[in-house]
Amino acid sequence: QIYVVFSEELKCWCRALVESVRHQADGYQLGCFLVDYAKYCSVAAENVRVLVGAFAKIPHRAKKCCLHCTKPLTLHIDYCENTAKIGPAKRWDTAAIQHFRKLLE
């Protein structure tokens, strides 16, 4: 379900998917994906509203996607043997993400 959340970073109300809920001392924090900005943010529970009416029918500008059969790689450095090999990784490196964004531009 799509909700409307207030983004402190963007200083406006945005449509979002709620992905996680964390309990903190001052209340609940929701991890959200902003469907029109393709950004992740954390929002206080009191800054979340239900999306109603015609606004719920507007298509999203951003969609989550992944590259088919593409897995992250990283450079594994063995200082003892003085070697470096490219191998599988659990997450994409920051440098790989930046390189991919440059390719898209």
Automatic annotation (TrEMBL):
EC number: 3.6.4.13
Entry's Gene Ontology molecular function annotations: ATP binding; hydrolase activity; RNA helicase activity
Keyword Cell membrane: no
UniProtKB keywords: ATP-binding, Helicase, Hydrolase, Nucleotide-binding, Repeat
Tudor domain sequence ranges: 3-68
Reactions accelerated catalytically: ATP + H2O = ADP + phosphate + H(+)
GO BP field: germ-line stem cell division
Pfam family, one: TUDOR
Annotated InterPro entries: SNase_OB-fold_sf (IPR035437), Tudor (IPR002999)
Domain of life the protein comes from: Eukaryota
Protein name, per record: RNA helicase
Organism, scientific name: Melanocharis versteri (Fan-tailed berrypecker)
Originating gene: Tdrd12
